[in-house]
Write a structure and sequence with these properties.
mainly alpha, 3 domains, 12 helices, elongated
Length: 251
């Protein structure tokens, strides 16, 4: 009985979201709509499977499908691994400077490498009074600690691929080999994976660390995440802020 009620409740929520967000119905929804709905909410959303099977079997929509839900592990790395990789990228010689900087942005600030590749040089600012460095990912700049600040400034002063037509005026923090284009994110991903870094695990662990000391809205604004994603990660990590919010929400 409870299962049937949950299926109805979640299906109504899905159809409401589908129309309000995309102006689509069950007949016109896409596979991507279903994947997005499942990926951006609690696991109870899997209860729409009965409805998806129904519209598929009845011919209402042959373009969508949904298999049986299986719980997925959330990859993370240990704090010891995170510290070891930060030390290697800060002081080691296993990679060239641009990829070391990109890896630290992942490990320190939980930045997806797709976003790292598109960072511009004006995201980095250095105080004229005290030399402190800050970098912007979201609503406001965040401090860059030493010794990474020195490494980041060194990279700014010696960016590669500046002879591809755009000259030293290239706006990209990581200029690509094609004139006027940033470095392709897959290039960064491949280089860091070749070192043995678990990219998703590193990002999740970095984000968890921020969420352990600051509430999700502040982390989201500082690191360029949506509030929804920050709360989802907070729930997955089981941090104190999520429990606090849940307690406050109860009557």
């Amino acid at each position: 009985m409870h299962s049937a009620k949950q299926e109805i409740t979640e299906t109504i929520k899905f159809l409401d979201w589908l129309w309000e967000t995309h102006q689509r119905t069950a007949a016109s929804c896409t596979q991507q709509d279903i994947e997005t709905w499942l990926a951006t909410g609690p696991t109870t959303r899997k209860a729409i499977r009965t409805f998806i099977v129904f519209i598929n079997n009845t011919g209402t929509n042959h373009r969508v499908e949904m298999g049986h839900y299986t719980a997925k592990t959330r990859p993370t790395i240990t704090q010891d691994q995170c510290v070891a990789w930060l030390r290697e990228l800060l002081t080691g010689t296993s990679e060239s400077l641009p990829y070391r900087v990109a890896g630290i942005l992942l490990l320190l600030y939980a930045q997806p490498l797709v976003r790292v590749a598109k960072l511009r040089t004006d995201a980095v600012e250095t105080s004229e009074t005290n030399g402190n460095v800050r970098i912007s990912f979201g609503a406001h700049p965040v401090p860059v600690p030493r010794p990474f600040a020195e490494l980041l400034q060194e990279h700014l002063a010696s960016r590669p691929n500046l002879r591809t037509g755009a000259g030293t005026q290239s706006p990209w923090l990581f200029p690509g080999t094609r004139a006027g284009q940033p470095l392709h994110p897959n290039t960064i991903m491949d280089r860091l994976r070749s070192l043995g870094i678990d990219l998703r695990g590193a990002r999740n662990t970095a984000l968890d660390e921020h969420l352990l000391v600051s509430p999700p809205p502040l982390v989201a604004d500082a690191l360029g995440y949506s509030h929804q994603i920050a709360f989802l990660h907070a729930d997955a990590a089981g941090d104190a802020w999520s429990r606090y919010v849940n307690l406050r929400a109860k009557p």
